[in-house]
Write a structure and sequence with these properties.
Low-confidence stretches of chain A: none
CATH architecture of chain A: Roll
Oligomer: homodimer
Radius of gyration of chain A: 15 Å
Chain lengths: 137, 137
Protein backbone atom coordinates (compact mmCIF):
# COMPACT_ATOMS: atom_id res chain seq x y z
CA UNK A 1 0.00 0.00 0.00
CA UNK A 2 1.40 3.43 -0.96
CA UNK A 3 1.79 5.77 1.98
CA UNK A 4 1.27 9.54 2.45
CA UNK A 5 4.47 10.74 4.11
CA UNK A 6 3.73 14.38 4.81
CA UNK A 7 2.16 17.61 3.60
CA UNK A 8 4.78 18.78 1.12
CA UNK A 9 3.36 22.23 0.48
CA UNK A 10 0.29 24.42 0.48
CA UNK A 11 0.01 26.58 -2.62
CA UNK A 12 -1.51 30.05 -2.44
CA UNK A 13 -2.40 31.84 -5.65
CA UNK A 14 -1.47 35.52 -5.44
CA UNK A 15 -1.76 38.58 -7.62
CA UNK A 16 1.66 39.95 -6.72
CA UNK A 17 4.40 37.95 -5.00
CA UNK A 18 6.21 41.03 -3.69
CA UNK A 19 3.03 42.32 -2.05
CA UNK A 20 2.26 38.88 -0.57
CA UNK A 21 5.77 38.65 0.87
CA UNK A 22 4.97 41.71 2.98
CA UNK A 23 2.74 39.37 5.01
CA UNK A 24 4.35 35.92 4.78
CA UNK A 25 8.00 36.98 5.02
CA UNK A 26 8.03 40.42 6.60
CA UNK A 27 5.11 40.19 9.04
CA UNK A 28 5.06 36.44 9.90
CA UNK A 29 8.85 36.28 9.64
CA UNK A 30 8.97 33.17 7.43
CA UNK A 31 12.16 32.52 5.47
CA UNK A 32 12.03 33.01 1.71
CA UNK A 33 14.22 30.26 0.26
CA UNK A 34 13.83 31.24 -3.40
CA UNK A 35 11.65 32.83 -6.05
CA UNK A 36 11.60 30.88 -9.30
CA UNK A 37 10.05 31.28 -12.75
CA UNK A 38 8.24 28.06 -13.69
CA UNK A 39 7.29 28.45 -17.39
CA UNK A 40 5.69 24.97 -17.46
CA UNK A 41 3.12 26.25 -14.96
CA UNK A 42 2.91 29.78 -16.40
CA UNK A 43 3.89 30.98 -12.96
CA UNK A 44 6.41 32.64 -10.73
CA UNK A 45 6.66 30.88 -7.38
CA UNK A 46 8.04 31.96 -3.99
CA UNK A 47 9.01 29.14 -1.62
CA UNK A 48 8.75 29.63 2.15
CA UNK A 49 9.74 26.56 4.17
CA UNK A 50 8.02 25.87 7.51
CA UNK A 51 9.28 22.77 9.28
CA UNK A 52 9.15 19.86 6.85
CA UNK A 53 6.59 21.64 4.63
CA UNK A 54 6.44 24.80 2.57
CA UNK A 55 4.09 27.59 1.73
CA UNK A 56 4.28 28.36 -1.99
CA UNK A 57 3.09 31.72 -3.30
CA UNK A 58 2.12 31.22 -6.93
CA UNK A 59 1.71 34.22 -9.21
CA UNK A 60 0.31 33.56 -12.70
CA UNK A 61 2.46 34.84 -15.57
CA UNK A 62 0.47 35.89 -18.63
CA UNK A 63 -3.30 35.70 -18.89
CA UNK A 64 -3.77 32.51 -20.88
CA UNK A 65 -3.45 29.78 -18.27
CA UNK A 66 -5.66 27.79 -15.93
CA UNK A 67 -3.99 29.51 -13.00
CA UNK A 68 -4.64 33.01 -14.35
CA UNK A 69 -8.29 32.11 -14.99
CA UNK A 70 -8.57 30.64 -11.47
CA UNK A 71 -7.26 33.90 -9.98
CA UNK A 72 -9.57 35.95 -12.20
CA UNK A 73 -12.60 33.87 -11.22
CA UNK A 74 -12.03 33.02 -7.56
CA UNK A 75 -9.62 35.70 -6.40
CA UNK A 76 -6.42 35.13 -4.43
CA UNK A 77 -6.29 32.44 -1.74
CA UNK A 78 -5.45 28.81 -1.12
CA UNK A 79 -5.12 26.92 -4.40
CA UNK A 80 -4.04 23.36 -3.59
CA UNK A 81 -2.50 21.08 -1.02
CA UNK A 82 0.33 18.76 -2.03
CA UNK A 83 0.99 15.54 -0.14
CA UNK A 84 4.13 13.48 -0.61
CA UNK A 85 3.59 9.80 -1.34
CA UNK A 86 6.24 7.09 -1.27
CA UNK A 87 5.14 5.54 -4.57
CA UNK A 88 2.98 7.63 -6.89
CA UNK A 89 2.12 5.09 -9.62
CA UNK A 90 0.70 2.50 -7.18
CA UNK A 91 -1.20 5.36 -5.52
CA UNK A 92 -2.71 6.44 -8.85
CA UNK A 93 -3.67 2.83 -9.60
CA UNK A 94 -5.35 2.56 -6.20
CA UNK A 95 -7.25 5.82 -6.72
CA UNK A 96 -8.40 4.79 -10.20
CA UNK A 97 -9.66 1.45 -8.92
CA UNK A 98 -11.75 3.30 -6.35
CA UNK A 99 -13.24 5.56 -9.01
CA UNK A 100 -11.40 8.71 -7.93
CA UNK A 101 -11.28 11.27 -10.74
CA UNK A 102 -7.72 12.22 -11.64
CA UNK A 103 -6.56 15.29 -13.57
CA UNK A 104 -3.36 13.39 -14.44
CA UNK A 105 -4.02 9.68 -15.02
CA UNK A 106 -0.28 9.03 -14.94
CA UNK A 107 2.53 10.63 -13.00
CA UNK A 108 4.12 13.61 -14.75
CA UNK A 109 7.82 14.51 -14.55
CA UNK A 110 8.21 17.74 -12.60
CA UNK A 111 11.96 18.32 -12.84
CA UNK A 112 14.71 17.30 -10.38
CA UNK A 113 13.45 13.68 -10.49
CA UNK A 114 10.11 14.68 -9.01
CA UNK A 115 6.87 13.03 -10.17
CA UNK A 116 3.48 14.65 -9.69
CA UNK A 117 -0.22 14.19 -10.42
CA UNK A 118 -3.32 16.16 -9.53
CA UNK A 119 -6.54 14.69 -8.16
CA UNK A 120 -9.75 16.40 -9.29
CA UNK A 121 -11.56 18.42 -6.56
CA UNK A 122 -14.76 16.63 -7.52
CA UNK A 123 -13.44 13.48 -5.83
CA UNK A 124 -11.88 15.10 -2.75
CA UNK A 125 -14.66 17.35 -1.46
CA UNK A 126 -13.65 20.53 -3.27
CA UNK A 127 -9.90 20.40 -2.61
CA UNK A 128 -7.37 20.36 -5.45
CA UNK A 129 -4.91 17.72 -4.21
CA UNK A 130 -1.44 17.25 -5.71
CA UNK A 131 0.59 14.10 -5.17
CA UNK A 132 4.41 14.18 -5.18
CA UNK A 133 6.92 11.42 -5.34
CA UNK A 134 10.42 12.71 -4.67
CA UNK A 135 13.76 11.03 -5.45
CA UNK A 136 14.51 11.04 -1.70
CA UNK A 137 11.69 8.54 -1.18
CA UNK B 1 11.47 37.60 17.09
CA UNK B 2 8.71 34.98 17.22
CA UNK B 3 9.26 32.06 14.85
CA UNK B 4 6.95 29.96 12.66
CA UNK B 5 7.87 26.36 13.49
CA UNK B 6 5.75 24.37 11.05
CA UNK B 7 2.43 24.00 9.31
CA UNK B 8 0.32 22.53 12.09
CA UNK B 9 -2.74 21.68 10.01
CA UNK B 10 -4.76 22.44 6.92
CA UNK B 11 -8.49 22.61 7.60
CA UNK B 12 -10.98 21.48 4.98
CA UNK B 13 -14.65 22.33 5.42
CA UNK B 14 -16.84 19.38 4.45
CA UNK B 15 -20.53 18.64 4.23
CA UNK B 16 -20.23 15.12 5.59
CA UNK B 17 -17.18 13.74 7.39
CA UNK B 18 -18.04 10.11 6.64
CA UNK B 19 -18.29 10.82 2.93
CA UNK B 20 -15.02 12.80 2.96
CA UNK B 21 -13.25 9.95 4.73
CA UNK B 22 -13.96 7.79 1.68
CA UNK B 23 -11.31 9.86 -0.06
CA UNK B 24 -8.84 10.95 2.62
CA UNK B 25 -8.77 7.75 4.66
CA UNK B 26 -9.98 5.00 2.35
CA UNK B 27 -8.58 6.10 -1.02
CA UNK B 28 -5.43 8.04 -0.01
CA UNK B 29 -4.85 5.68 2.91
CA UNK B 30 -4.27 8.37 5.53
CA UNK B 31 -4.68 7.42 9.18
CA UNK B 32 -7.72 8.75 11.02
CA UNK B 33 -6.49 9.53 14.53
CA UNK B 34 -9.82 10.72 15.94
CA UNK B 35 -13.18 12.34 15.25
CA UNK B 36 -14.16 14.90 17.85
CA UNK B 37 -17.15 17.14 18.55
CA UNK B 38 -15.95 20.71 19.14
CA UNK B 39 -18.99 22.63 20.39
CA UNK B 40 -16.95 25.87 20.73
CA UNK B 41 -16.50 25.81 16.96
CA UNK B 42 -19.97 24.41 16.18
CA UNK B 43 -18.17 21.59 14.41
CA UNK B 44 -17.28 17.96 14.27
CA UNK B 45 -13.65 17.46 13.26
CA UNK B 46 -11.74 14.47 11.86
CA UNK B 47 -7.96 14.53 12.38
CA UNK B 48 -5.66 12.85 9.84
CA UNK B 49 -1.95 13.19 10.67
CA UNK B 50 0.58 13.41 7.82
CA UNK B 51 4.18 13.68 8.99
CA UNK B 52 4.41 16.53 11.50
CA UNK B 53 1.18 18.12 10.20
CA UNK B 54 -2.48 17.16 9.95
CA UNK B 55 -5.38 17.43 7.60
CA UNK B 56 -8.51 18.36 9.53
CA UNK B 57 -11.94 17.70 8.04
CA UNK B 58 -14.35 20.15 9.62
CA UNK B 59 -18.09 19.56 9.39
CA UNK B 60 -20.35 22.36 10.66
CA UNK B 61 -22.91 21.31 13.29
CA UNK B 62 -26.14 23.31 13.18
CA UNK B 63 -26.86 26.11 10.71
CA UNK B 64 -26.18 29.16 12.85
CA UNK B 65 -22.40 29.48 12.73
CA UNK B 66 -19.76 31.24 10.64
CA UNK B 67 -18.55 27.85 9.45
CA UNK B 68 -22.02 26.75 8.29
CA UNK B 69 -22.48 30.03 6.45
CA UNK B 70 -19.04 29.66 4.85
CA UNK B 71 -19.96 26.18 3.59
CA UNK B 72 -23.33 27.45 2.35
CA UNK B 73 -21.74 30.37 0.52
CA UNK B 74 -18.46 28.97 -0.81
CA UNK B 75 -19.07 25.23 -0.88
CA UNK B 76 -16.71 22.58 0.51
CA UNK B 77 -12.94 23.00 0.19
CA UNK B 78 -9.88 24.37 1.93
CA UNK B 79 -10.88 26.63 4.83
CA UNK B 80 -7.69 27.72 6.60
CA UNK B 81 -4.03 26.99 7.17
CA UNK B 82 -2.69 26.87 10.72
CA UNK B 83 0.96 27.60 11.45
CA UNK B 84 2.58 26.88 14.79
CA UNK B 85 4.47 29.79 16.35
CA UNK B 86 6.84 29.58 19.32
CA UNK B 87 5.34 32.65 21.05
CA UNK B 88 1.90 33.82 19.97
CA UNK B 89 1.54 37.07 21.96
CA UNK B 90 4.79 38.60 20.64
CA UNK B 91 3.70 37.48 17.16
CA UNK B 92 0.33 39.22 17.53
CA UNK B 93 2.08 42.38 18.76
CA UNK B 94 4.40 42.27 15.76
CA UNK B 95 1.49 41.81 13.34
CA UNK B 96 -0.50 44.65 14.94
CA UNK B 97 2.49 47.01 14.70
CA UNK B 98 2.69 46.25 10.98
CA UNK B 99 -1.01 47.00 10.50
CA UNK B 100 -2.07 43.39 9.89
CA UNK B 101 -5.80 42.92 10.50
CA UNK B 102 -6.47 40.28 13.16
CA UNK B 103 -9.72 38.45 13.82
CA UNK B 104 -8.50 37.77 17.37
CA UNK B 105 -6.50 40.70 18.76
CA UNK B 106 -5.35 38.52 21.65
CA UNK B 107 -4.57 34.83 21.88
CA UNK B 108 -7.57 32.67 22.77
CA UNK B 109 -7.41 29.54 24.93
CA UNK B 110 -8.18 26.51 22.76
CA UNK B 111 -8.07 23.71 25.35
CA UNK B 112 -5.15 21.44 26.34
CA UNK B 113 -2.98 24.51 26.98
CA UNK B 114 -3.19 25.58 23.35
CA UNK B 115 -3.45 29.26 22.37
CA UNK B 116 -4.79 30.39 19.02
CA UNK B 117 -5.64 33.49 16.99
CA UNK B 118 -6.89 34.04 13.46
CA UNK B 119 -5.46 36.56 11.00
CA UNK B 120 -7.98 38.18 8.64
CA UNK B 121 -7.73 37.07 4.98
CA UNK B 122 -7.76 40.74 4.00
CA UNK B 123 -4.17 41.04 5.26
CA UNK B 124 -2.82 37.73 3.95
CA UNK B 125 -3.92 37.71 0.32
CA UNK B 126 -7.19 35.85 0.74
CA UNK B 127 -6.00 33.11 3.09
CA UNK B 128 -7.54 32.58 6.52
CA UNK B 129 -4.44 31.97 8.67
CA UNK B 130 -4.59 30.52 12.17
CA UNK B 131 -1.70 30.81 14.62
CA UNK B 132 -1.11 28.17 17.30
CA UNK B 133 1.10 28.19 20.34
CA UNK B 134 1.30 24.76 21.91
CA UNK B 135 2.46 23.83 25.42
CA UNK B 136 5.25 21.76 23.83
CA UNK B 137 6.86 24.99 22.55
Amino acid sequence: MPIIKKIHHVAVVVQDIEKSLLFWRDALGMTLSQVKNVPAQNARIAFLPAGESEVELVQPVGIDSGLARYLEKKGPGMHHICVQVDAIEPMLEQLKKLGVRLINENAMPGGDGKLYAFVHPESTGGVLVELYELPEN
